Amino acid sequence: MGALNYIMSNFCTVPSTKSKAMQTVEIKVKMDCDGCERKVRNAVATMKGVKSVEINRKQSRVTVNGCVDPNKVLNRVKRTGKKRAEFWPYVPQHVVSYPHASGIYDKRAPAGYVRNVQTFPASTEAEEKYMSLFSEDNVNACSIM
């Protein structure tokens, strides 16, 4: 049996299938009525690998959980007639460092959300060190000045 296992393992390889990881895909799509919501839900729920579909019509948000390709989900939603569908462009406001900078605030964003835009480059450790020396939070700032 050992020779057969050796031959099978070295010469008869089965190509491995790519398994997609479980992920959450969020899409912004305008839905006006129950019919629109039902059409989008049915289109996405019938996809292979989809575990659950949550729709929040007030936020115009579709959340799909499962082992799916995000681009395929977006294309499936667009095929329902929703040509302006896009990936969810918003993040919670408390996550962003400067939520009131230009380009981040969006009137169409749901309450408590802002656009996911990186406007300021991340500062280096040296900059943060010098900035904290003269901040109001530093109790020894008066002795430095």
The count of strands amounts to: 6
Which strands sit side by side, in order, in the main sheet? 2-3-1-4
- Uncertain runs are none
Distance between the termini: 82 Å
How many whole angstroms does the radius of gyration measure?
25 Å
The number of helical elements comes to: 5
Task: Compute the average pLDDT.
Answer: 79
Q: Strand-residue fraction?
A: 15-25%
SSE string: HEHEEHEEEHH
CATH architecture assignment name of the domain at 23-115: 2-Layer Sandwich
Helicity range: 25-40%
- Give a short account of the largest sheet: 4 strands, antiparallel
Class derived from helix and strand content: alpha+beta
Oligomer designation: single chain
